[in-house]
Each structure stands twice: as C-alpha cells, then as structure tokens.
Amino acid sequence: MKKHTILKLITSTGLALAVAVTSVAVPFNRKCENIRNSVFRLHIIANSDSEVDQELKLKVRDGMLDLAENLFKDAADHIEAKEIAEQNIGLLKQNAIETLAKNGCSEDVSVTVGKAWFGTREYDDFTLPAGEYDALRIVIGEGEGKNWWCVMFPAVCLPAAKGDIEDALDSAETEIVKGKIKYKAAFKIVEIYESVKRFFKK
Questions:
Q1: Which of 8, 138, 155, 163 has the smallest number of Cβ neighbours within 10 A?
Q2: Looking at residue 24, what is its pLDDT?
Q3: Cα–Cα distance, 165 to 128 (Å, whole number)
C-alpha cells in the first residue's frame, strides 16, 4: 500500500472517530451541563504533598464542614448556596486560618467562590461528570498538594448530611449520575470533550 494511501486511511479513520465521539459527547454533555449547573462543590487544596500538609488539609476540611453545616443547611438550591459562600468568605477564611494556627501552621489561605474544573468523580453511590462547577475553593499556602473535594449542595458531605444528589436533579439527570456502570464510557468521552474545550479556552 502506497504511503499517501496509508495517510489518507489514517486521516479518514481519525475523522470518522472524531465524528463518532462528537455525536456521542455533545448530546450527553448537554445533560451533564444541567447537572453541573445544579451542584455547588467544595475544593480544598493542600500546601504540598508532605504528610504534615496533607494532615493539615484534612483538619481544615473538618473545620470547614462543621462551619458549613450551619451556614448551608437552609440553602434551597446551588445558587443560594453559592451566594451564602460569597457572603461569608471572610468567616470561611478565618475558620481555615484559625484551624491551621491551632495545629502550629502559619500558612496563608486563599478562599474564593467561582467556577472550578473537576474531573469525573465517583462517590459511593453516584458519579459527577467532568467540567466546570460553581465551587468554594480553599487553597492553603502554595496550593501545590493533593486536593479534597465534595458536594456542598445538595448537602451530601456535611457532617449531619440529610441531602441526596437526587434533591438537585430531575429523573433523567439522576439516572445519569446513579448509572455508574451504564454511563462509564460516556463519562470518559465527556471528560475528554470538556478537557479539549478547556484547552482551547486558555
């Protein structure tokens, strides 16, 4: 087989694959977009991957969840949860700094509310698709360590959590996040699709 024929075959195969992936990703991703627009997440990033910094990250997490239980318990939807976070950034930052200080750490803490990128995340009984979510983002020190994240609305990760991911989604969206095995390949395609979109946004 001639070289130009091989190249033509590879190109056509690549284009066919791209079309196939897009045809699957776009409709499914529209449903995933509704999921992303219904959830408010928490993202805590450690100073480094040292054992001490990772332990401090978990201390900050525990203190943050204790505080958040009272702050977010009456949030009616993810928009209200986001507004509560925005209105209490000072209090949330103070909580994190005081938690670090009690554990002998003087690192600064950055607390912001806004869009943050998350990869596909599997929890015990549901999966959230990759993409950008509204989130409360807490960065300790240099923010170069492993991170921890969870869902603030619905109240899935709060200490006395009474919320369920179903509280924020309709039946079709609930089927997607609960269908861990059924939609595993689709979640992967969406992650690739969203990663490519994110790359070209930069």
A1: 8
A2: 56
A3: 10
